[in-house]
Amino acid sequence: MRTQLLIISAIILGLAACKPSQKDTHEKAAINSEKKLAKFEPADGKCIIFVGQEMEAIGGLEAYNDGYLDHFPTPGGFTMYTKIRPGDESFGFTYSGVAGLFTTDDWGDGPSNMSMQVADPDFKNMALAIGFEMVNHEGAIARGERDSLVLVLGEWLKSLSKRPVFLRIGYEFSGSWNHYDREEYIAAYRRIKNMYDSIGVNNVAYVWQSHGSDEPMDLLDSWYPGDEYVDWCGYSFFSRFDEANMIEFARKKGKPVFIAEATPVISTPTTKTNGKTKETILSNPVQAEEAWEKWFTPFFKTIHDNQDVVKAISYINCHWKANRMWFDNPTFQDVDARLQTSKEISERWKAEMAKSNYLQASDDLFELLWGKNNK
What is the pLDDT of residues 293-313, one digit of tens each? Predict the structure, then answer.
């Protein structure tokens, strides 16, 4: 009996030694509460919802009234695009100025006009994510030859005052379709941020976004502009999402992650070699169910399993196959990702978005995102 008591006592003492003291618990809680957040980064467990990526997909306007905003609660942000590519052409559109900023422009992916959107009351409490493309012109930007256009965008961003903007400079930098020169890309990225800092643009978080597949860690390292130039790491969540390493990379860098482009596309046996994905039309109940199982479910699992890092997502609510840019694109040519076209998907999406971790538009969203670490 005495031996048994000694053994029990030893076990109790061992457990007490392993259990963190009240002081340790308080110290860890204090450290977590004082964690310095990145620009516009919400607290762990919270995720900002964006929707994109052109005016028909987003809706909420008199002339564009069958998009996401017309069928679902207003999300925390919207995603649009601009291009600095003077003289280049795309599906009958010739680039000049800062495309899609002040005029309604269509370079093959549907109409874009950010000034129209930010002036509309329905967009009042929404943050803005901008995909900034500079294909064929990263070298000219790096050398200062496009400074006047870069500054036009910068002054407009500054005019948005407290509206948080997530600027994705040279998004999907590593995608072969963009054929960016790595050194010129990094130099252009840094030049843009340095210019905006110099003119007092303080409502922008800088997002460095990869294409999200076939991206080993050393590749990401080689394209990284540097901690002082990157507020958020981003990547695209399409058919080969299991090949992405950006979450691991961002965690090592201490950066939050923005899944900046996400739409349901499903791999085929040849997707890796020719990009071809399965036909996915959400209005088709059979295809919608397959999309829910093979894309939406792992998408939400990625968010919930990484709540310390994944802090923003953008769903592309696009009728891909109806836009000229994608007619011959094997990945998106057979995709209609409009949530509102499927009753079953819409109900499940609304139920997911109603969870407390997702941040939608509200009167205090901007104040929350600015937070104590961003003032």
Answer: 999 999 999 999 999 999 999
Domain boundaries, the chain: 39-370
Angle made by CA atoms 309, 158, 170, in degrees to the nearest 5: 50
Instruction: Summarize the confidence of residues 146-159 as an average pLDDT.
Output: 98
The CATH number of the structural domain formed by 39-370 is 3.20.20.80
How many CA atoms, within 13 angstroms, populate the side-chain half-sphere of residue 204?
28
Residues 6+ apart with CB under 8 A from 2: none
* DSSP secondary structure of 97-139: SSTTTSS-B-SSS--B-HHHHHTSGGGTT-EEEEEEE-TTTHH
CA dist., res. 73 & res. 315, Å (int)? 14
- Residue spans of beta strands (DSSP E) within the chain: 47-52, 77-83, 89-90, 93-94, 127-133, 165-169, 204-210, 232-237, 257-262, 280-281, 310-316, 335-336, 358-359
- Could you tell me if residue 79 is left (phi over 0), alpha (psi between -120 and 50 degrees) or otherwise beta? beta
